[in-house]
Amino acid sequence: MTGRVSFVGAGPGAADLITVRGARRIAEADVVVWAPAVVEAECVREHARPDAELVDFSRVPESEVLELYRRASAGRLKVVRLHAGDPALSAGLREQRETCRRLGLETEVVPGVSQLSAAAASVGRELVDPDVAQSLVLLGPETAEHVEEFAAHGTTMAVSASGARAGQLVERLREGGYADDTPVVVAYKVSLPDEVVAQTTVGGLEACVKEHKVYRTALFLVGKVLAPPAGRGRGAVLEGDEPVPARRSRPSKWGKRAHRSPSVAAWSAVHDWQEAARAQRRPREEPVPAPVLELVPTEEPAAPAVPEVAEAAAPAEPVVPEQGPRSKPVVAAAAKPKPTEVRASTTPRKPATPRSKKSKRAN
Q1: pLDDT tens-digit readout, 78-88
Q2: Are 82 and 32 in contact (CB under 8 A)?
Q3: Burial 16-45 (b: 16+ CB within 10 A, else e)
Q4: For the whole prediction, is pTM greater than 0.70?
Q5: Number of helices and strands (H, E) in the chain?
Q6: 18 lies in which domain range?
Q7: How far apart (Å, rounded) are the C-alpha atoms in residues 90 and 87?
Q8: Residue 199, SS3?
């Protein structure tokens, strides 16, 4: 068994939006590497073991993280490195995996719910539509300066940029061909209690950012597909229309369970294997006691393995010498002898005399 480093996507922010596999990896981990600035602390407290080592990699240099990987390789430790959202959208993932492989560590990537998916779900809009936009362009903070080049495609865009530079973003969107009435969604700290999710347009983007005081890195979704539905198109709801009665589905076992206690039902399975994972990682000084087999004492001591057999009364049955290994003593109550058993005689016998031997020779 070698050490393992799991790169786990912590989701957009809320602790209950992490995947079941990601939560399980945290419960099994000896060391959890995370950044409290981008990953909610509740996500770690909910799933990590009490004796797990927590490392804030935003406050330590990369050399210390490398030393941690070496220690994990030597001690066969399980390490989890948490990423906000999905690890596939984080920078430096490939370099981290190559470093771990050179050290002889196993690597694993556990996907997570991205901020892009959480923002689209928050406003209830799809990001691609066959009739409006058939593709999606993702731009990180490093490529935000080239927005106008990608905006020329006229499709849906997801730009991760600083809110303090919203004015520059608006200029580049206009240069790329987006009109001022193009819908925009501003998403900041999605799924957290202090989240900001606002719908505006390219022309009103700068004022919207100032109104909600979003000056740090946020996610901006741009495209016509984000416009409110109009007419009787897909998903549209018109005012004054009579509601259509919904057909009630047959409740399943899980539905009944969730209806009784939503919070308990949602986390019951998670907590079960969390406790199982923690039990497997108990300290060595507290071994799990093995089951003890109790032996019931008997009133009389056990008979010897090979009892001393007296001479048989009938001369036609000679005494057979002992053959094979000695049988193990049996711990049990004394039972009645079977008819075929040969029991040792309690009556003292007279020693054989030479006279009897001479008589036999004489005969």
Answers
A1: 999 999 999 98
A2: yes
A3: ebbbeebbbbbbbbbbbbbbeeebbeebbe
A4: no
A5: 11, 10
A6: 4-113
A7: 5
A8: strand
